[in-house]
């Protein structure tokens, strides 16, 4: 089990480093937070005031728009799939459809509703493709007492035979509950490119660049919104962090509720003295680390991204409740 947890920790660290690296290497905005005019993704021909976009992309773009006043309109041509594929497969296959979905829905409402609709659709698809992994993740909570029993049985035994017996009993336990201990990692790999794609889409979709939600610009960061006196921006940020934490903790809470409901009395080995250093402690540590990392990154992300993450976390909370109610047997 320790080796499994170490592998998961390494994976989480790698994913976080990749997220920071990739998002840092392909930010379609200048230092002031304005999106480059040539990076905006549109569903149809649109216009945008020069003052809300950045023309400081390269010398050619600067020259093209240098004579325009801040209030002058710049015409944007519809963005095609071919245009995005010219930038790269990631932009064409992931960023483009997400951004255009946001634009499509926002055409009937606003950018915020567009983000909500795109997020819910994406989460539904992820749920359908990764439901087995998510069920396995919650089942891991169920078998934790039995894992603790095995660990307690071989505690302090470092000989090869004991290690082998422990591994065999652990594997037999996974087989009994039909769980692949690495299956939960599938969720991370599915969500990772979507998160990066949404990050790009919330900065490049025309309806987000030019739109607002509840009177708040979706391209400003929570810090910018706070400095401008738009405290609703900080409310969205705080709710995002809160629901992110709830979405992580909910499976544990549901498991505790299930035990109380069924009057399950755990034996001493189910709660060993070194529990905080055990599997549950490691899971909690990863949970708090990932939430903290998201909070640090999100404080300087466009508010549209924080809004996405808030809706995404609420959707995961609902998914956990559905899995608990309909897929996890008491």
Characterise the protein shown here.
The protein is mostly helical. The protein has one domain (82-326). The chain is 67% helix and 4% strand. It has 13 helices and four strands. The chain has helices at 2-25, 59-65, 81-87, 89-106, 111-142, 144-153, 160-176, 185-204, 206-209, 222-227, 231-261, 279-298, 303-326, and strands at 46-49, 73-76, 212-213, 216-217. Strands 1-2 form a two-stranded antiparallel ribbon. The chain has a two-stranded antiparallel ribbon with strand order 3-4. A hairpin with a 2-residue loop joins β3 and β4 (216-217). α1 (2-25) packs parallel to α8, α1 (2-25) runs parallel beside α12 (279-298) and α4 packs across α8 (185-204). It is elongated and about 80 Å long. Residues 1-7 and 20-25 have low confidence and may be disordered.
Low-confidence stretches: 1-7, 20-25
Sheet with most strands: strand arrangement: 1-2
Q: Which structural class fits the helix and strand makeup?
A: mainly alpha
Instruction: Work out the helix count.
Output: 13
Q: How many E strands? A: 4
Please tell me the overall pLDDT. 79
Helix percentage = 55-70%
- Following the backbone from N to C, one meets helices and strands in this order, namely HEHEHHHHHHHEEHHHH
Overall shape: it is elongated
Biggest pleated-sheet summary: 2 strands, antiparallel
How much of the polypeptide forms β-strand, as a percent range? under 5%
How many separate domains make up the residues? 1
Q: Distance between the terminal alpha carbons, to the nearest Å?
A: 24 Å
Which radius of gyration do the C-alpha atoms yield? Answer: 24 Å
Transmembrane segments: 111-131, 182-201, 228-250, 283-301
GO biological process, one term: protein insertion into membrane
Subcellular location: Membrane
Domain Membrane insertase YidC/Oxa/ALB C-terminal: 112-325
């Amino acid at each position: 089990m320790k080796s499994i947890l170490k592998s998961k920790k390494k994976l989480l660290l790698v994913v976080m480093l990749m997220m920071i690296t990739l998002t840092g290497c392909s930010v379609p905005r200048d230092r002031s937070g304005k999106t480059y005019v040539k990076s905006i993704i549109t569903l149809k021909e649109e216009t945008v005031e020069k003052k809300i976009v950045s023309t400081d992309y390269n010398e050619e773009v600067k020259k093209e728009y240098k004579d325009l006043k801040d209030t002058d309109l710049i015409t944007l041509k519809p963005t095609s799939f071919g245009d995005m594929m010219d930038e790269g497969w990631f932009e064409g296959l992931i960023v483009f459809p997400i951004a255009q979905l946001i634009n499509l829905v926002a055409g009937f409402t606003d950018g915020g509703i567009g983000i909500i609709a795109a997020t819910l659709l994406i989460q539904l698809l992820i749920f359908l493709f990764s439901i087995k992994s998510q069920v396995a993740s919650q089942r891991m909570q169920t078998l934790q007492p039995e894992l603790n029993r095995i660990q307690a049985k071989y505690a302090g035994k470092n000989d090869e035979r004991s290690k082998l017996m422990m591994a065999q009993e652990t594997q037999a336990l996974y087989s009994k509950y039909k769980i692949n201990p690495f299956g939960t990692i599938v969720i991370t790999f599915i969500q990772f490119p979507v998160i990066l794609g949404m990050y790009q889409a919330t900065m490049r979709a025309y309806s987000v660049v030019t739109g607002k939600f509840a009177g708040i610009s979706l391209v400003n960061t929570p810090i910018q919104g706070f400095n401008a006196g738009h405290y609703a921006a900080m409310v969205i940020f705080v709710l995002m962090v809160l629901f992110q934490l709830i979405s992580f903790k909910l499976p544990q809470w549901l498991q505790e509720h299930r035990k109380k409901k069924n009057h399950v009395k755990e034996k001493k080995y189910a709660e060993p003295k070194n529990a905080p250093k055990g599997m549950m402690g490691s899971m909690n540590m990863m949970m708090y680390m990932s939430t903290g990392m998201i909070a640090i990154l999100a404080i300087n992300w466009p508010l549209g991204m924080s809004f996405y993450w808030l809706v995404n976390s609420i959707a995961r909370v609902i998914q956990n409740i559905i899995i608990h109610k309909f897929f996890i047997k008491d």
